[in-house]
Amino acid sequence: MGALIISLDFELNWGVHDVYTIEEYGANILGARLAIPQILQLFLKYDIHATWAIVGMLYCKDKQELLSYLNTIDIPYDNTAFNPVQNFSKVGDNETLDPYHFGNSLISMIRETPNQEIGTHTFTHYYCLETGQSIEHFEKDLEAVSSLGDKVTSLVFPRNQVNPDYLLVCKELGLEAYRGNEKSWVYRSYTSKTNTRLKRLCRLVDAYINITGHHTYSLKDIETVPIANIPSSRFLRPYNKRWNILEQLRLRRIKNGLTKAAKKNELYHLWWHPHNFGKNTKENLEFLEEILKHINYLTKKYNFQSMHMRDVTEVLKIIT
Ligand SMILES: [Zn+2]
After folding, report:
1. C-alpha to C-alpha distance for 119 and 30, rounded to whole angstroms
2. CA 161 to ligand 1 center in whole angstroms
C-alpha cells in the first residue's frame, strides 16, 4: 500500500520568536491564520488526512495560564533566547489581543475538520539537541502537553532536532510515533551549531533538482522501537516570487517522488508550517492543490492513499 502522509508544524510565532521580530515576520504569522481555514478546505475537498503537530502554548486561553505553565517548565538553554520566557514581554493578554501567540480558535477549527489528527510539536517548542537542556526538562514539557486535553500520539520535534535518547520518555508519556529526518547528511542534525550554510544550500537546491533522492520508504521498513519513526520525505518550501520560473521544477520534483511512491507501494511524507503559506497565500494554495490533484490521479491509478501519522501507527500495529 502506498500513501502520502502530511504533517504540519503549527506554532504561530513560537516557532520563530528567537529568529525574527514581529516587525520582520508578523505578517507571515497573521497570514498563517488566514491560510489555515483554506488549507483545511482543500483537505476536505480532496479527502486528505493530515497531522497537525501543535505547540502546546497555543492552547492557553490567556497570558496568566501560559505563565503558570512556563513557571513549571524552565529550560536552562545555554542560549537563553531559545527559552519562551525571554519573549514574554511581547506576549499580549489573550488570542483576541495577541493573535501571534495564542491559537485556540484555530485548534478548534482543526479538531472539527474530518480526518485531521491533533499531534504535538511539544509544549514550549522544545529544542532536544541544544546545550543546557536535559531529559528531565523535556519530560516536564511533555507532561504539560498531556494536561491539555487532547490525546496525542504523534510528535514532531521542533527544528527537527530528533534526540534518540528521548524516545523512551516519549513512549512512557503515550506517544507512538515521531517524524524523523531524511536519510542524507544534508538533512541530518539541525542544531544551531551543525545546521551549516552548506547544508542549507544543498537543501535549497534539492527542492528543485533531485540531488538526494525522493526519500520514499515502505511500511515494513519503518523502525517501530521504542516508537515508530515516520520520516520526512520533503519539506514543502514556500512559493518564491523571485524564482517563479523554478516553481514548475519544484512541483515536478514533488510529483515525481509521489509517483515513485505510488508505483512502488511506498510512503511519501510531506510537511510544512502554516506560516510558510502566510505570504503569497494564493500561490501557495494553488501549488498545494496541484499536488492534491496529482494525489487524486495516483489514487485512481495505483490505489494510493492519504494518511496522517496516526493512520500509519494504526496500520503498523496490525502488521507487526
Ligand atoms: Zn517548529
Report:
1. 22
2. 10
